[in-house]
Amino acid sequence: MADSKTLSPLDLDTPDKTYLDANELVINMGPQHPATHGVLRVILRLDGEKVLGLECVIGYLHRGVEKIAENRTYTMFNPYVDRMDYVAAVSNGLGYCEAVEKLLSVEAPPRAQYIRVILTELNRIASHQLWLGTHALDIGAITPLFYTFRDREEILKIFEKYCGARLTTHAFRIGGLQYEAYDGFEKDVKNFVSFVKPKMDEYEELLTTNRIWLERTKGVGVISGKDAIALGVTGPVLRASGVKWDIRKAQPYANYKNFDFEIPIGQNGDTYDRYIVRMAEMRQSLRIIEQAMEGIPEGPIMAKVPKVMKPPVGEVYHSIEAPKGELGYFIVSDGSTQPYRVRVRPPSFVNLQALEVMCRGHLVADVIAVIGTLDIVLGEVDR
Amino acid sequence: MNDIITYVTSYLGSDLTPGMAGNWFWATVYILLIFVGVSVGVIAMNWLERKILAHMQVRLGPMRVGPHGLLQPIADALKLLLKEDIIPAEADRVVFWVAPFVVVLAAFTVFIVVPFGPTYAVTDMNIGILFMLGVSSLSVLGIVTAGWASNSHYPLIGALRSSAQMVSYEIAMGLAVVSALLMTSLDGQGTLSMIGIVKAQLAEQQWFLFKFFPLGLIAFLIFAIAMVAETNRAPFDLPEAESELTAGFHTEYSGFRWSLFFLAEYAAMMAVSSIAVTLWLGGWLRPFPNALSGPAWDLAFSLVPGIAFLFLGGLCFYGTARMPKHPYFRIQTIGLAGFGALLALIGLVLFLPGPRNLVEDIFWFTAKVAGFMYLYIWYRGTFPRYRFDQLMKVGWKVLLPVGLALLVLTAIVGMRSELWADIHGWGRP
What we know:
Structural class of chain A: alpha+beta
Number of strands of chain B: 0
Largest sheet of chain B: none
Largest sheet of chain A: 3 strands, antiparallel
Number of helices of chain A: 16
Order of helices and strands of chain A: HEEEHHHHHEEHHHHHHEEEHHHH
Oligomer: heterodimer
Largest interface: A-B, 31 and 32 residues
Radius of gyration of chain B: 23 Å
Distance between the termini of chain B: 49 Å
Order of helices and strands of chain B: HHHHHHHHHHHHHHHHH
Strand content of chain A: 5-15%
Number of strands of chain A: 8
Shape of chain B: globular
């Protein structure tokens, strides 16, 4: 396996060489494939089952979200961001709303911020649950998927009650919230927290000490903290490599600085550590939700924002810790009602770069495991 | 005419299998019965797997086609038969055509020597177990040719995985089988005949599972692991790993040809389970032959098949009572009640002395095989999938050495008990 590290990456310009060499097999994994989490296409160069090189081809789900933003007002673009990382729509909305708020120099009132934090953390749990189910399914354990979807359903029910949508929620508005928390919101969230805690033990019972799971995930897709930083990898993937970087702590936004939680980190940077980190993160999210439920202040839910938003000329970059990593919005305003340019820094897109480093020299089955552990959403990669 | 009747009736009451007795008529009847029985078993297994797996995964499984989805496998089979028969343009047509038949043939031929009872087998070869291992490993040929003939990348990788896997696990499997065969030969009457092996367990009043504890148990466990790998089932389902190779060696197959692979896979599962049942679990013998012996217990155990069917019928009636009382469900409710009544009727018939004695052996054999089938489903619901190199590691570095050591140990322990029996005149059953 050591020698494969020195091999050059896949050279698509000279395909003849690869086809003439009878020991090598070039296969297209995707865009139609059960385990590439959407329409990712991976061109694999294989020696038997060993991966010599791979290249990701993306863009099959490109909808031009950033370009659309240039033709929409700030308010009109808000629902579009939900369609990027559609399993963590609330986080996307939070990032966008806060970025525009920064541009407008307004701040959401405390009550709005508390509800935002609760919903965002619920969404983090939902996103991680979906990741866990599909990741386990990729590795061959078909049952956890149904358990995680059963429990994720409870979160989606809360979203539905709150804002009427389950997936693409459009939960937040620039300057705060449109909807007050519905009657029984607190009860629902508290019920969910007590409901999901034993369920998390259930997932762990199925996987954490399972011999096959350990063999399939330990030492697979290793990425060192240095490499991860060099590639711009963020989120649980970075933290599993031992780098304690969480934007909720590093550059607190919303009102995360009021909450007491830990940043789980791993040591080895392998798939198992990423699994452990995400499982711990779900529990930390529950902690944050519990604290936030205790202290929701009374007050308005919407700051004073103009009806027609014309932010001053300038630019702003605001990033939040989305479930998958650093989600940043770079917005340039030319003083009109529409942004001059919106650039999204999606965590999935950047994390996907690490795929080749993590896979080379491993086997085909590991490529699947690594795609799963990177937790990519193609809607966000292609935008 | 009289000759024919005499020929047909002459076999009745014989204590040999039709193949041994040389009676072609009954041999053919048995072959047809086994073919039908295995096919029905595959259909039942299909339904059970989907239902049991569904209940493990907090969902209901098929519920729409027939009461509780009972007719779902039939609907699926019809759908598969009616589908367009696609042969890829670049495929090797002849080989592509032949491959599924090789697999099915290998899976079904094996059942010729499976003893469902002392006389309920098509024939009793003196090399029965060798025949079973040999023929069942032929199916790898069909899988490799299927993968090769598809002329496509994923099937090719699937076929390569499959061949490597089946070849390496066959060795561990063979070692475990030999250790069981050693146990039959302790009285100087070793046998490879499937019926002979069960009769040896009957003579010793002990299943080989518990013989030379824990040696028999370990051999059984080796076989139980190897047989899952041999049949390409989870957690060793790499050749058809859905998340990696879409569908492995049968990616390019569809419709009837695909259903042949499906049929063969399930038939092969039953076949290897029958080997395990025959070698270690006493074949058609009822449980507890030594602890609970005597005519009273014999009678009690012979009533179990009837009770089992009555229980299944009762389950159906329970389901009927729980059916929604909506006119939409009326036909389904009636169907379920009818099915329950049929099962209960079978149960009642099985209480009569005649059918009772006829069916008892088959019942115990099938029940044991069904236990293995449940294990297969359970594995599938619980385990992640092994990676290819780890699979090889388990086969070559764990099962093979353990199997070899076990073989030597069994031989030593066997010889010791032989010698002691000769010296002291005890220990021999």
